[in-house]
Amino acid sequence: MGKKVLRTREQDNKVTVYCSDNTEYDCRILVGADGAYSAVRQNMYKTLEQQGRLPSVDKEAFSIGYITVVGVSKPNNLEKYPQLADKHRAYFPLTIGDNNDSCGLVTAPDNQISWGIQIQIPEDKTKDQRFRNSEWGPESADEMLDQFRDFPCAFGGTMKEIFDATPTDLISKVFLEEKVFQTWYNGRSVLIGDACHKLLPGAGQGAMMAMMDAVVLANCIYNMEDLSDESTNAAFASYYRQRYSEAENITKTSSMLSKMMFGHKWSDRLIRKVILNFLPGWVKMKMAEETLTKTRLDPCSIRGSNSNRGSNPTRKFNPTDMYTIHRPDCATRSDTD
Predict the structure, then answer these.
(1) Spacing of C-alpha 175 from chain mean position
(2) Distance of alpha carbon 266 from alpha carbon 269, whole angstroms
(3) I want to staple 108 with a disulfide (CB 3.0 to 4.6 A). Which of 97, 112, 150, 153 is the partner?
(4) pLDDT for position 49
């Protein structure tokens, strides 16, 4: 869309969004899905701070632990990288250097390799390293790439060959940050995804959490009786109750796994060694399964007609059918359970 939000204003039961190209938009509900440096959140928090209602925890900066550069190489030679020939599985090797700097690779479709390199930031230097710009900003990555050109590539050769096969427009430098904001909504504005909870990548749950936020919020809006302030606030409150604790738990899990994976401290490296070398395989599979399957969403309630809209006949679909299919462990569940 190419739009940059400058500010928002709420009045007369609507929100007006003002953009940098002098366009403005009116809406009854504004969803801030604009990333970790969300303009919607910044405007919301500015209003709350002026009213003396912004919690002090929401004024704190992100916790930064790593700087990473990511990219996707152009199609590679299968003879040089035979791992790409396997169309039924993805390979994800992680190489850790002497200074606990690391390099990860993932085989991708069309004979491409997705890669990422990470440099750890000591806890006492995170403030000095902080950039005040977009998280996926255009700052040069050349200096960081130079540090890894002689780094061994798990697929063979060195990382220099992977870097050289990657178009510059597919290379991005980013801080890996984490924070769960306490305030997710105010008035007719509400936040989802990185705008309200930014995760480290260890659990691979960042995008998943954003999608689940969107589904739950959509269901809450769908169940609104009307567009009054009371109904809007009730919908946002229901969304928050369903998602905040889960976001907090997943953020902690992602933080733990990221620190263990990259070995931020000696204790993290010790835990990693024990898990990778001594923990039985079935235990590791069980842990992974629980991480991936523990979160389930309640289905949206059914309402409206079931009239024929195509050539095939329709049948009435009861809400309990959805629970039977998606949640066999419970027949009914209220929003306040």
Answers:
(1) 14
(2) 5
(3) 112
(4) 97
The pair of structure tokens assigned to 306 is 């079931």
Residue 1: the pLDDT is 66
Looking at domain 5-55+182-293, does it have CATH number 3.50.50.60?
yes
Q: Token match 């050769």: residue?
A: 157
The whole-number pLDDT of residue 129 equals: 58
Q: In what order do the strands lie in the sheet containing 14-19? A: 5-11, 14-19, 24-27
- Residue 205 contacts by C-beta under 8 Å, 6 or more apart in sequence? 199, 250, 253, 254
Q: How far apart are CA 25 and CA 19, in angstroms?
A: 8
3-class state of residue 171 by DSSP: strand
Domain extents in the chain: 5-55+182-293, 63-177, 299-337
Structure tokens at 33: 């899905």
Which pTM was predicted? 0.75
The answer to whether 163 touches 71, Cβ cutoff 8 Å, is yes
Residue carrying the six token digits 């991936």: 292
Three-class SS of 103-170: EEEEEECCCEEEEEEEEECCHHHCCCCCCCCCCCCCCCCHHHHHHHCCCECCCCCEHHHHHHCCCHHH
Highest mean pLDDT among 38-47, 131-140, 316-325: 38-47
Cβ burial 223-232 (10 Å sphere, 16+ → b, else e): eeeeeeeeeb
Return the structure tokens found at 163. 């870097």
243-279 pLDDT, tens digit each: 999 999 989 888 877 777 666 666 777 777 777 777 7
Q: Which amino acid is at 64?
A: I
